């Protein structure tokens, strides 16, 4: 089978030919290597500033027909002499997300080629293509996927028919954040490679580090970076601080997602994935926790039609094609809207119950009778200064808020001893399993009430996932643990984010998420002193299309 892929969501006017037989489609090791994917790309380079949608669309209009013809020439060369039919079996195109004017040109081109050869048309989600290309070449069965691209940043995991968003940026994509900073210092687009180059000569400087559960945001760190250069901090040092901070955040959320889902495979996708420092941090984190890591070669990381052709071929083989009237583009196409029709592996099966020792997202937890010793071990992927700061701050905060929550009637472990320097807490053992291994409606209702109680008391948990709730016998036998990411706030957005983190973790750990999410909201509404403002904000957060 030979499939033409067309990509053109923003800057890359790209066409590719992917050729594979049935066995190679399922098992890339049967294929020689990525060498058999032919990719032809014509990049749009803005004269000044960032990507202008109109200019980018003009570029697509000129470049797409040319790259498509070159790819078709390649397909004709590959066709055996005996072949008389069309040189391709299907046309796959990037349907979204991306810039509307660019996507429309890609869609029109794809429809025209499909009609010209009378072959099938396949609409591919660009973000899913970014992660599936890594999954394809790695041969991993159930990986966690980190997408680090220009307009996006998110961590995904597959569960019952869809990729679930376990965490994502609350403001801009990671590459766009970097590019905004480089525009501020007067560098041409794209800024990512320039930051990478300057960072190698810089000394680390501290910048704000923002992780909420598995979500994160870049706006604070970007303003701080701009201010630092305005004040005269050498730009090399700011670049180094930026890389160390932003990539540590992405690595941390990837590790949290591995921990929550018990997965032991990670794949990387997206243009920012070309950064060596990011790749080395992810590789080191995976080695440290005994997981496997795979990053595709750079030509499959940045926007390219190869990834569209590869996923398009697998969708085509599964019969997942579009009729021309149904083939409209979708500039806000989210990865969790895609119904996965091709083989996307199975979630990891878990055996519940406690072992003597548990490796959490970042701490090692040991049980000694009715006591628990929790140690935040150093993370060698992080810059030592950042590592020390995070471990001691979080240990202090965890001890403080765990006790404060108890004072407000929320069951939490009694603290016996705290040592922020060694990042160690000794506290009471509570429950006999994690909520993810004992999910019931009654228990998630209790969590909804407990979150309402701490919010009314003026703070958030910061990471209320199904791992950070312990359950056991008794009434209601539900305990909140792990307040390390908590902080004092009465801001509606912060309170709603707590509920959003819980929602995302339910979607990532159970097939019954919808019913349980409704139960949380209902219990929260009844218990909260506030009216519906927090729940309204939660709806707004979950509706936000974060493609800027
Ligand atoms: C929707 C689609 O159009 C968009 N595509 C996109 O953003 O292009 P992509 O090729 O995945 O990523 C480009 C980004 O990747 C950054 N980048 C490239 N090389 C880099 C490097 N060495 N270090 C850091 N960032 C890098 C660039 O600065 C730019 O922001 C997306 O996937 O979000
Ligand atoms: N007090 C406790 N009683 C019983 N089990 C606990 C207790 N504290 C932790 N655990 C168990 O250990 C697991 C990991 O602990 P925890 O979530 O605190 O670590 P972590 O995720 O690495 O934390 P952080 O990301 O804040 O460093 C929990 O999911 C829970 O099952
Ligand atoms: Fe992309």
TrEMBL record:
The keyword Iron-sulfur does not apply. Residues 37-309 form the Gcp-like domain. It catalyses: L-threonyl-[protein] + ATP = O-phospho-L-threonyl-[protein] + ADP + H(+); L-threonylcarbamoyladenylate + adenosine(37) in tRNA = N(6)-L-threonylcarbamoyladenosine(37) in tRNA + AMP + H(+); L-seryl-[protein] + ATP = O-phospho-L-seryl-[protein] + ADP + H(+). ATP binds at residues 357-365, 374. Its cofactor is Fe(2+). The active site is at residue 463. Component of the KEOPS complex that consists of Kae1, Bud32, Cgi121 and Pcc1; the whole complex dimerizes. This is Probable bifunctional tRNA threonylcarbamoyladenosine biosynthesis protein. It comes from Halomicrobium mukohataei (strain ATCC 700874 / DSM 12286 / JCM 9738 / NCIMB 13541) (Haloarcula mukohataei). The lineage of its organism: Archaea, Methanobacteriati, Methanobacteriota, Stenosarchaea group, Halobacteria.
């Amino acid at each position: 089978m030979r499939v033409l892929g067309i990509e053109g969501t923003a800057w890359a006017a790209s066409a590719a030919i992917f050729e594979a037989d049935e066995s190679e489609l399922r098992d890339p090791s049967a294929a020689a290597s990525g060498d058999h994917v032919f990719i032809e790309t014509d990049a749009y380079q803005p004269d000044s500033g960032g990507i202008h949608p109109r200019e980018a669309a003009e570029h697509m209009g000129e470049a797409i027909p040319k790259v498509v013809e070159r790819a078709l020439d390649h397909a004709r060369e590959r066709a055996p002499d005996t072949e008389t039919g069309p040189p391709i079996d299907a046309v796959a195109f990037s349907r979204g997300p991306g810039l509307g004017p660019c996507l429309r040109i890609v869609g029109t081109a794809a429809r025209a080629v499909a009609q010209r050869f009378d072959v099938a048309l396949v609409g591919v989600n660009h973000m899913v293509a970014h992660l599936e290309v890594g999954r394809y070449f790695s041969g991993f069965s159930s990986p966690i996927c980190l997408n680090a691209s220009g307009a996006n940043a998110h961590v995904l995991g597959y569960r019952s028919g869809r990729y679930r968003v376990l965490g994502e940026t609350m403001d801009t994509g990671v590459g766009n954040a970097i590019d905004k900073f480089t525009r501020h210092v007067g560098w041409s687009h794209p800024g990512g490679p320039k930051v990478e180059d300057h960072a190698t000569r810089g000394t680390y400087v501290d910048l704000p580090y923002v992780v909420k559960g598995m979500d994160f945001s870049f706006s604070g760190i970007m303003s701080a970076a701009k201010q630092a250069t305005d004040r005269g901090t050498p730009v090399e040092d700011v670049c180094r601080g930026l890389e160390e901070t932003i990539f540590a955040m992405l690595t941390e959320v990837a590790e949290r997602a591995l921990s929550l889902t018990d997965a032991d495979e990670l794949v990387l996708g997206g243009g920012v994935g070309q950064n060596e420092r990011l790749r080395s941090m992810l590789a080191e984190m995976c080695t440290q926790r005994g997981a496997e890591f795979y990053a595709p070669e750079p030509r499959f990381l940045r926007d390219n039609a190869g990834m569209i052709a590869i996923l398009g071929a697998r969708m085509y083989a599964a019969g997942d094609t579009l009729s021309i009237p149904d083939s409209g583009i979708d500039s806000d196409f989210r990865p969790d809207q895609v119904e996965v029709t091709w083989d996307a592996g199975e979630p990891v099966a878990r055996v519940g119950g406690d072992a003597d020792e548990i490796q959490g997202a970042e701490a090692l937890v040991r049980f000694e009778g009715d006591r628990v010793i929790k140690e935040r071990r150093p993370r060698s992927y992080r810059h030592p200064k950042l590592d020390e700061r995070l471990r001691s701050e979080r240990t202090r905060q965890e001890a403080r808020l765990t006790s404060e929550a108890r004072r407000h009637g929320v069951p939490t472990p009694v603290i016996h001893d705290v040592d922020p320097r060694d990042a160690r807490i000794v506290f009471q053992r509570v429950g006999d399993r994690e909520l993810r291994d004992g999910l019931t409606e009654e228990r998630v209702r209790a969590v909804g009430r407990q979150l309402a109680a701490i919010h009314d008391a003026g703070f958030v948990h910061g990471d209320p996932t199904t791992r950070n709730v312990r359950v056991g016998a008794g009434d209601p036998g539900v305990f909140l643990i792990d307040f390390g990411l908590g902080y004092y706030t009465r801001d509606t957005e912060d309170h709603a984010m707590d509920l959003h983190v819980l929602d995302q973790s339910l979607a990532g750990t159970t097939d019954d998420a919808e019913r349980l999410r409704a139960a949380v909201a209902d219990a929260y509404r009844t218990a909260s002193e506030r009216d519906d403002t927090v729940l309204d904000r939660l709806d707004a957060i979950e509706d936000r299309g974060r493609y800027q």
